[in-house]
Amino acid sequence: MAKRGVSLDRILRVRTLQLGLVRAAEVQAEEKLASEEALRQRIAQLVENVAPQQSADEAFSFIAAAHFRERLHQSAAAADSRLQMASRNLERASEATREARRDQSAVEKLIARDDQAAVLKAMRALEEAPAMRKNRHDPC
Asked: Which member of 8, 14, 53, 96 has the lowest number of beta carbons within 10 Å of its beta carbon?
């Protein structure tokens, strides 16, 4: 293969590796987003479960429940911000994956175009080659 073809093959291998790495990063971002969403849901469930109860005899339990509820609200706010950050990271990872796919397909198209040009060049060489017909006159 010509030197250009070898370099295109090398570029394709690099782009394929980069695409694999970017896809892995995108999967990690999706998993992070899912775990942050699950954490946010769990905190919301805990907030609902810590509602003050009418049957409590001591004021201390109301104060403790209020304090715990306030801490859960703070945790929920932090979880929301982490969820938004994870969502932004997922968007960036998805865009990087699209760019890597675009780069890889561009290199594949260049290789296909190079192969087509080589085939056309070989066909023209065969068409322009002189006829190689030899008449053999062997003694009978």
From this structure: 53
Distance CA 53, CA 59 (A): 11
Q: 14-32: per-residue pLDDT in tens?
A: 999 999 999 999 999 999 9
In the chain, the amino acid numbered 124 is R
What is the distance between the terminal CA atoms of the chain, rounded to a whole angstrom?
47
Question: 61-71 in b/e burial notation, b at 16+ Cβ within 10 A?
Answer: eeeeeeeebee
Determine if the pTM surpasses 0.70: no
